[in-house]
Amino acid sequence: MALATSGGSTSQGAGIVQAAPSTSTDQQWQLLGEETGYDELENVASGMVLDLPGSTTTQGARLEQWGANGGANQQWSVQNNGDGTYTLASASDGQVVDVATSSTADGATVDQWNATGGTNQKWELVSVAEPNATYTLVNRNSGMLADISGASTSNGGELIQWVPNGGTNQQLGGGYSTVTNVNSGLVLDVPNNSTSQGVQLEQWSANSGANQQWLLGLAGGGYYTLTAKNSGLVADVSGGSLTENAQVVQWPSDGGLSQQWQLSLDY
User: Fold this and answer.
1) Which of 32, 114, 151, 199 is 20 to 30 A from 234 via CA?
2) Is 97 in the same domain as 168?
3) Dist. CA 34–CA 222, nearest whole Å
4) Do residue 260 and residue 150 come from a single domain?
5) How many Å apart are CA 27 and CA 45, to the nearest integer?
6) Confidence of residue 103 (pLDDT cuts 50, 70, 90)
7) Does residue 202 share a domain with residue 153?
8) Angle at CA of residue 248, ends 257 and 131, nearest 5°
9) Are 79 and 160 contained in the same domain?
10) 18 in helix, strand or coil?
11) Domains of the chain: total
12) Which of 227, 230, 216 is CA-nearest to residue 262?
């Protein structure tokens, strides 16, 4: 479930709940760093921040959104749990963001509670695709990144998977429809407009073709599928390989982990 405002409200004082993940902006939050070392969590839909009402220290107090005022009750320590999740602890009283009674229900209240280490107090930070941002694409099956072989800047450079190395040939950006390699400036392309399964993907100069347009689909768990507009096939690590240099091809969607990609925001 995702951290959200109750009913998608943009009103000051609206309660915070958990909700089934969607593309709604009331489930999207920006981490705004403060000089104190804490972060404010600003809701994209409302522009308001995650707030502990009245700076209360009461365990079980429901969280809300409120206009930013710089108070410690609006500042949060984002603590890495080492398992891909984070705990959000209040700078005001040290209690953490918690789903009340460990509920798994859509719309359940989100409150503050003493840290227990429970999964109802652990949150994933999932990047949301936005125009002109730069990401790496992490394959769910192998944990490796989508990579242009040999850091090629030429038309026809082949798409493979490779271990993270910080190279710009592993960074992809551009809007919702095209995926642009930072190293070359070329875009993710299905060669020759092919509709055949198993064709290795490549990079090519942008030409506005349907074979260069990709639909991001929610796959759950913070992962996405990339579907080519021209063929309806998805970006897939060939054979579910876990090895470096494995080809990335287009293939019919089958729900496999090798077809699921995480957008890792490149700072």
Assistant:
1) 151
2) no
3) 26
4) yes
5) 8
6) very high
7) yes
8) 85
9) no
10) strand
11) 2
12) 216
The one-letter amino acid at 50: L
Q: Which amino acid is located at 260 in the chain?
A: Q
**Closest among 188, 147, 189 to 168, alpha carbons compared:** 147
pLDDT tens per residue across span 122-170: 998 876 666 666 778 888 888 888 888 898 889 888 888 888 887 777 6
**In this structure, are 177 and 101 located in the same domain?**
no
> Domain end: 66, 88, 121, which one?
121
- Report the mean per-residue pLDDT for the chain: 88
Strand partners, 2: 19
CB atoms near residue 110 (< 10 Å): 27
> Which residue, 87, 121, 155, sits at the end of a domain?
121
The number of CA neighbours under 13 Å toward the Cβ of 104 is 2
Contact 189, 212 (CB under 8 A): yes
Cα angle 139, 142, 145 (rounded to 5 degrees) comes to 45
pLDDT at 135: 72
* Average pLDDT for 45-58: 94
Residue 232 φ/ψ region, left for φ over 0, alpha for ψ in the -120 to 50 degree band, beta for the rest: left
Secondary structure of residue 212 in the 3-state scheme = helix
CB contact at 8 A, 163 and 144: yes
